[in-house]
Specification:
Layout: H1 2-40, E1 44-47, E2 55-58, H2 64-79, H3 86-96, H4 102-116, E3 121-133, E4 138-149, E5 152-168, E6 171-180
Antiparallel strand pairs: 1-2, 3-4, 4-5, 5-6
Helix pairs in contact: 3-4
Length: about 190
């Protein structure tokens, strides 16, 4: 009698083990398939609409609209500065920087901060036009750069700037910034 109970108990445990092994194999297969789909599928993050249209950014690349909005904000942040906000100004730009370009950008910004700290020189930039190249991850901004000492405008020049970007994962980061020569003659100081 004990042998029969022992045999029935062993058979029940074997059925449970086999069912557990089958369930584990099924879940493992589902996990592998789901992991494969997640790794090969483009990721998207929905961004809040900032102006004229809702934006999305995906692992496939940055859209022209998104690159334009980021360039606009970066240009205004970079080119509008006053001595009172230099530390915040530099930190905000470095937050946008690509880690590979962080050191070079920081060196350039520190030089600007050292030159401008303690002075009364303020800079304001008004964007007139912008072109973006989402495939090349570059953008150009044209506008008027005004320089003030106190409330007096000492220079008002048309300038062109190029921004170079990197795109890793879902992050667009500033890799470089340069002033380009303009074809127009500079405006006279007011």
């Amino acid at each position: 009698m004990l042998a029969q109970f022992s045999h029935e108990r062993s058979q029940a445990l074997l059925r449970q083990r086999n069912m557990f092994a089958l369930t584990s194999a099924g879940l493992t297969l589902a996990l592998v398939i789901t992991g494969g789909l997640a790794a090969t599928r483009d990721r998207e993050v929905v961004l809040l609409p900032t102006l004229r249209a809702p934006l999305t950014i995906s692992s496939a690349g940055a859209s022209a609209d998104y690159l334009e909005f980021v360039t606009r904000d970066a240009a205004l942040m970079l080119l509008n500065r006053s001595p009172e906000g230099l530390d915040y100004w530099m930190a905000a730009i470095l937050d946008l920087a690509d880690p590979a370009s962080h050191g070079r950008l920081k060196a350039d910004l520190v030089r600007i901060v050292e030159e401008q700290r303690g002075s009364d020189v303020t800079q304001a930039f008004v964007i007139k036009s912008m072109t973006v190249d989402p495939k090349g991850l570059t953008s150009e901004v044209k506008g008027t750069l005004k320089t003030f000492v106190g409330a007096q405008v000492i220079a008002s020049d048309d300038r062109r700037f190029r921004f170079t970007w990197t795109y890793r994962g879902l992050r667009l980061a500033l890799a470089g910034f340069a002033q380009l020569p303009t074809d127009d003659k500079p405006k006279e100081s007011q």
